[in-house]
Request: fold
Amino acid sequence: MATPPVSPTVTSIGRDTPRVDGPHKVTGLAQYTSDFHFPGMLYAVPVEATIANGRVVKLDTAAAEKMPGVRAIFHRENIGRIFRSTGGPGFEGICLERRPPFEDDVIRYYGQYIALAVADTFESAKAAADAVRATYASEKPNVETHLQADDDPDIVLTAYGPAERLQSHRGDAEQAFASAPIKLDQTYITPAETHNPLEVHATTAIWEGSTLTLYESSQGVVNLRGVLAQMFGLPKENVRVITKFVGSGFGSKLWPWTQCPLAAAAARQLGKPVKLVLSRKMMFQSVGHRPLTQQRVRLGATRDGKLVSLQHDYVYHRSMLDPYHEDCGEATPFQYSVPNLRVTFGRARRNVGAGADMRGPGRVPGLYATESAMNELADQLKIDPVKLRILNEPKIDESRGIPFSSRHLVECFELGAQKFGWSRRSPEVGSMKRDGLTLGWGMAGCSWIAARFPAAASVHLRDDGTARVATATQDIGTGTYTILAQLTSQKTGVPLDKIEVALGDTALPEGPTSGGSMATGSVVPAVFAAADSAISSLLTIAATTPGSPFESRKPDDLAFQDGRVLVKGDGAAKGVPFPDLLRRANLRLVAGSGKSEATFGNPQPKFSTHSFGCHFIEVTWQPEIARLRVSRVVTVMDAGRIINPLAGRNQIVGGVVMGIGMALLEHTSYDPQTGAPINSNLADYIVAVNADVPPIEVHFLEFPDTEINELGARGIGEIGLAGVAAAITAAVHHATGVRMRELPVKIEDLLA
Ligand code: MOS
Reply:
């Protein structure tokens, strides 16, 4: 057979690699959930409760039912059975609002669904939903923002399993604080925030007999399938979830919400496909939010800056029914070296929708508090905040007594300080000026968990020289399509443009949830194992196919390199391209499958595995017109090996942008009278936009962490947001002298 010239090994790992799905997105070929249409499809619009606490006494659907195009108004009496779901072993069956829609007539939060209008068109359904009249027995909702912990037991059941309220402790933190020469005792508050992905949540449900197909905007199709199967009493094989493209999620799409079973139940009752797309207003009510947190941090230190005691006691608000856990204390026990430490949490019930993981859940508000406290302590001690952190750098994870797999936080600080020009900082408030503006410089460190979810994948090598990689994870806009193509190309030598990536479908091998910044780290070993298994089958075929140039060889004598099969020891130039071998054997393809185990939740890990990083941030302040701007950001990340620096920087920049929003703009306000999130639209809920965003310089350190996978790649989605708000509030203080301990920083707080 004719052999084309060998191309040198081309690897895209570690190179800036444009999104392989980019052309689909810019040409409109990419189909998001609400883009799918089916013959006979009907449209559903939920009716939202307009109270936040009470009961539905009467539902008048008569007028709505008679409206043109209306097929049904569903409510408690006619929706049919929707069962509860329960969690499974490990990280299975997760749902942050367990009560199925319409299970009872009790209203726990504003916007809770009380009925569902289904019609031939969206407009008819919306008009009918608006025409449903509800009468309530209403009580005053509790959306009080001052938090006092409820009287909970010492161990509480959270959405992710039992959690001890004394989260971490060592030494005697109270005693050490009492006798510390330098003390800091402050409380930091972060508001409720709403995720606001551009693409709203949507479900289209289709029944064929007893099988249910859901088109869903989801960050976790496998979990969603398991939960919905339970809700409809089906084996999970009977449920298929499809999510081809996601217009981001930030955590709000990690777990199923109530609109999904509603669409499925309506489709079941009517025998037609039903599409349900949320409004932006509903996005603030019924699909999660980052809870309000109130965190007291007490630091005790020696006069030369060594921490002797750290206490972090936090309270967050939760919904009336559900135990989402905002784990603000996750990083506290190991971020710094301190012999005496105590971390505790409490929860306070409010008439709000269920809380949910929002980009950097727990650690982002948690690190805002602890990093702010470190900055305040540095000022109190008149020590440079970088120096204070380096002074307290731990050698091991002191909370668990195990080493870090790879921790280069000090190098992050050093590189960040150098790139930013930190040595030119003069610490006095208001002492730095440029072009008539007052400058404020601040910094903070951060970290984020690194671990793997279980993952399975398949790889096909095909007779036309193409490859296919498949796993039931999803690309939430972060670049997972591209990463999967890169991993497959690396192993098979097939160029990126000849690789088909299949994801976002529970019919594929079970892949990870796109959460915890763990999807990439999780899929690496599974895809590599699948490729190895396909290659191993290929070598057997090469050695056993009559007429193959390797017919007389044993599979063990053969090797695979750059897409070619060759005899071990021979150069790749003597190799035979795999499509030639497949064609000779009359095979369309050779398939391999692989999987990897979870490391997440391992009760006895050998290493403490995290990514680390820091932000150096400049603000400009014009007191005459009370204008505050973030003007410069330098971010350094120690996130292991970066598979795609282009997408990686993109993730970190996105995180920093959200951090600017968190520090200065974002805040979900609940109306004390009605309990409604009142700024429930993108005009009144302000996020950082281009005009708020300065140049952001991102550096990666690239120390591979082979504890996570053989490439040494850790996650980089969420860490970009962690620490940003603490760096900004420190910069605000440096510029203005105002110490802001409640986010977001408002201009009126800065007016002297
Ligand atoms: Mo992230 S909050 O785990 O989507």
Notes: Residues 519-544 form the longest helix (26 residues).
